[in-house]
Amino acid sequence: MKIFLAGATGVIGRRLIPLLVQAGHEVAGTTRRPERTGSIAELGAAPVVVDVMDAAAVRAAVVDARPDAVVHQLTDLTGEDFEANSRLRVEGTRNLVDAAKAAGVGTMVAQSIAWLYLPGDTPATEIDPLDPSLPPYAGIAALENAVAEMTRGVVLRYGALYGPGTWYAPDGAIAQRVKAGSLRLAPAWTSFVHADDAAAAALAALDWPAGPVNVVDDEPATTAEWLPVYSAALGAPTPGNAGKHAAMTGRPVSNAKALGLGWKPRTPSWRAGFADMK
After folding, report:
1. Over the stretch 200-216, which tens digit does the pLDDT of each residue have?
2. Which InterPro entries match (predicted)?
C-alpha cells in the first residue's frame, strides 16, 4: 500500500517508517522542517514538507501522494505547549481528514491517548466514556470525531509512551522531574506502552476495523508502584510519599481488544522496560 504518514519525525513516526517499509509499503512522510527531510529519506520514506495547519497545502500533498491510507502521528509538545498540541489535534486532524476525503482515501489510523477515561477501579475498555473535565478532552474529542468520519478510521489510544526519545527517557522531561525530586508516590493510575510497541500497533492497525483501540502494556500501575522502580533505574533518590490523604485518580486501562486483534507488546510490563534503561 501507499501510506501518507503525517508526523514522520516524531517518537512514533521515526520508528514506524522502517516497519512500514519492511512490510512492503511505499511511504510518504511529512515534516514541516526542511532540514529534517534527510532523516526521513534515510529511513526509506519519501519526504514531504508541509505544515498540517495549512489546509490547502495538506490537501495538495495528500492528493499528490495518492495514498491508500493516511497515518496520523502528529503531536506538538515542544516546550510542553499543551495548547499548541490541542490545536494540532483539532485543526490538523480536520485538515488531514478533509484532505483524505478529497483524495478518495477511506482509511486513517490516528494517534490518541488512553488516560482520559472517567475514574474507576476496573480496567477501562473502549466502550467506557471519556472524562470531559480533563484538559486534553476537547482536542481528543475533536480528533476522534473527525477520524470517525472516515470509511475506516482507527484511533489508537496510546498509554504513556516511554523509551528513547520520550519524556521518560533518562534525558526526558519526566526524568528531570524525578531527579529534581518533584514527583511523589501517589495512588494515581498510569498505563504505559513502550514506543516500539506503539509503532508496531500503528502498522497492525492498517488492517484493523474502525473504532478506538487501547494500546497499553499488560500492567497498569499506580505512581506508588512504578515511580520507585523508575527512580531506581535513573539512579535517582527514592521519592517521598504524597500523603495518606492523597486521592485515587485516573483509571487502569485494558488492552484486551488490541490483544484480540493480534497485537502483543514485546515489552509486556514497564518493569522490564524501565530496567532496560540501566
Report:
1. 999 999 999 999 999 99
2. Epimerase_deHydtase (IPR001509), NAD(P)-bd_dom_sf (IPR036291), NAD(P)-dependent_oxidoreduct (IPR051783)
pLDDT confidence of residue 73 = 97
Question: How far is it, in rounded angstroms, from Cα 43 to Cα 46?
Answer: 9
Architecture of the domain delimited by 2-161+193-216+254-266: 3-Layer(aba) Sandwich (3.40)
User: What is the reported pTM?
Assistant: 0.96
Task: Tell whether the model's pLDDT for residue 237 goes beyond 60.
Answer: yes
Cα torsion 250, 94, 6, 82: sign: negative
Q: Which residue has the cell 495518492?
A: 66
What is the C-alpha separation between 186 and 229, in angstroms, rounded? 14
Where are any strands of DSSP class E within the chain?
Answer: 2-6, 26-31, 46-49, 69-72, 107-113, 152-158, 160-162, 189-190, 192-194, 211-215, 221-222
Mean pLDDT to the nearest integer, 161-181: 94
Domain ranges of the chain: 2-161+193-216+254-266
pLDDT at 262: 98
For cell 488516560, what's the residue?
Answer: 115
The 10s digit of each residue's pLDDT in 91-107 is 999 999 999 999 999 99
* All three cell numbers of 245: 490523604
Would you tell me how many other CB atoms lie within 10 Å of the CB of residue 165?
A: 16
Output the average pLDDT for the chain.
95
Q: Which of 170, 201, 171 is nearest to 264 (CA)?
A: 201
